[in-house]
Amino acid sequence: MVELDDIAGSPLQDAWLRIRSTEGKETLIAVEFKTEFSPKSAETILRKLEGAKPRDLMLVAPHFTQRTQAYLRDRGIAFLDFSGNAYLKLDEPALFVSAVSNEPAPAPETGNRRLRGAKAGRLLRHICDYRPPFSVSALARELSIDVGNVSRYLELLNREALVVRGPRGVVTDVDWEGVLRRWSLDYRMPVQDRYHDPRGLDHFRAALQKTDARYVLSGVSAASFYAPYTAETTALCYCDDLHSFAKALGLRTAERSSNVILALPFDKVVYDRTQVRSDLTLAAPSQVAVDLLTGRGRDLQQAEELLRWMREHESAWR
Amino acid sequence: MPGAEDYILARRNLIQVLETLRYYTREAIVVVGAQAVYLRTERTALPFSPFTLDSDLVVDPRLLQVLPPIRETLATHGYTHRKGQPGLYWAPGANDERPSNGAQVDILVPEEFALGNGRRDANLPGENGGAARRTAGLEATLYDRDLCEIADLEQSHRVIEAYVAGPAALILAKAEKIAERSSQGDPRLKVKDVTDVFRVLRGHERDDLERRFRSLAEVKDIAASFAHGIAAIRGVFVSGTLGQSLFVAGLPDNGDRGELLDSYGFLMEELGAILDAIR
């Protein structure tokens, strides 16, 4: 049997959860509600509760990111969100609850919590592709982004424990994999269209090898050069003008199935730090990773394989 | 379904008959049929297995030397007739009692260049009764063709150079064959003839195809058969649905189906546009 006692006015927590077994064993869990949580704020709450053991605490919020869920689970802190993710482990009474929801995270409420657009992308690519330290002013200067925006993005990343900041806000460490995963939640290509090379992907790749037009190959096609895992069924290619590029390469607009996706880059950084293999211009591994992470099925599996390669061969791309 | 061994032997048989005929001027002999399709599209990966293994050669009676008679040359090297038919042979080692995959060799003459009034015999000049078979739809192979290296699939050092029919000629020949068999209700109408055309289109750039069709359109000697072939292409592949229904029947039952079907549609549209452009 489970009861939720709401003790108003308690200075320490918002409510208590009383859990009692049929044998009479009982435990009280402090419940803390918040509109948003991050690993950092969880730490603050723990410090505030002082003396309360982690398992006596349950955090409730509209949504916990996978990252935060993992953080809390590792520390034995119970949680529950409105998407249906839950975790609770008690010894007395013996109780174990674990639920993982397939519901996506609700869209962030305010614009500046999104990592979308050219400036955000340019910054995220930079801090992934290069090694810290990064100062706010240097980033702003090098990337032509105003200091305010740089600060806001870094603060968001800091709240989600994706970067470590030292004195004067200098970024001293970056969880680049976490950054890419977080970015993929917000990442969008400004324009993309589906096409068909009637002669298949081998032919499309051969045409890319010969073209003078600027392009960058991403997705599974590019990943297969870094970390081969799965056969490509669709090529993802960034270019400057979809229509003229398609025409130059003999692509047809696809009505049903397509084997080529052409996309406009969200920022010119898509063309930075590319690699050439077999006369093909490949996007930087970090770019390929975020493109794969926004896909589904095989794209996601390839993403995991690419990220594994990136972890094991950081010096090859960073 | 043939295995790797069968393909190796088939290629070897082709090389062997070409070597047998090496005395004759190279320009007089052209490799046609499925072996030509696969020689032209070796790098085109498709989920259709090639499974015709026979060797088909077209000879040009205007260029082929009369002496020694080709009939004699083939007989001396162990080639025997299949079921007594003109132009149809078994490679050495095989015969009507002991048939063998990939051992059938056909010596063909395009109908427009065949002589005499025989129904099947091409009536090659000289002592060549029954040596070659007259066949419609192959005229273009004497004009759209290229000298190619043909290598043994196992012993790659064993190579011979010979003319191989070009993509335009191959498409014309296949279209003609399908149209003829369809009009006769011939049960030999096969999916693989359509997939061979698809393979040829996949393996060649549009510009190349258009250039070849345009060149063929200008050859007066084959004007009648060319027009006939174009009509067959339109009827089977471009405006008609026979090609598509045969193609669909040959598609693999997997996720590639949609992509291949779309590819077929686009390539046939392109073929139609090429024919319109050369009118």
Layout: helices, strands, pairs:
The complex is a heterodimer of chains A (318) and B (279).
Chain A: E1 2-5, E2 15-20, E3 26-33, H1 39-49, E4 57-61, H2 66-74, E5 78-81, E6 86-90, E7 95-99, H3 118-129, H4 136-143, H5 147-159, E8 163-165, E9 171-174, H6 176-186, E10 192-196, H7 200-210, E11 215-218, H8 219-226, E12 235-239, H9 242-248, E13 252-253, E14 260-263, E15 275-277, E16 280-282, H10 285-293, H11 298-312
Parallel strand pairs in A: 3-4, 4-5, 12-14
Antiparallel strand pairs in A: 1-2, 2-3, 5-6, 6-7, 8-9, 10-13, 10-14, 11-12, 15-16
Chain B: H1 4-20, E1 29-32, H2 33-40, E2 55-59, H3 70-76, E3 80-81, E4 88-90, E5 104-110, E6 133-135, E7 145-151, E8 159-165, H4 167-183, H5 191-202, H6 206-217, H7 223-238, H8 242-250, H9 256-277
Parallel strand pairs in B: 1-8, 2-5, 5-6
Antiparallel strand pairs in B: 1-2, 3-4, 4-5, 7-8
What do these coordinates show?
The complex is a heterodimer of chains A (318) and B (279). Chain A is built from eleven helices and 16 strands. Chain A is α+β, with helices and mostly antiparallel strands. The longest helix of chain A is centred in the C-terminal third of the chain and has 15 residues, at 298-312. The model of chain A has no long low-confidence stretch (mean pLDDT 85). Chain B is of the alpha/beta class and 279 residues long. In chain B, α2 (33-40) packs parallel to α5, α4 runs antiparallel to α5 and α7 runs antiparallel to α9. The mean pLDDT of chain B is 92. In chain B, strands 1, 2, 3, 4, 5, 6, 7 and 8 form an eight-stranded mixed beta sheet that branches. Classes of the chains: A alpha+beta (318), B alpha/beta (279). Chain A binds chain B through residues 196, 198-200, 202-203, 233, 250, 252, 254-259, and chain B through 43-45, 201-203, 205-206, 255, 258-259, 261-263, 266-267, 270.
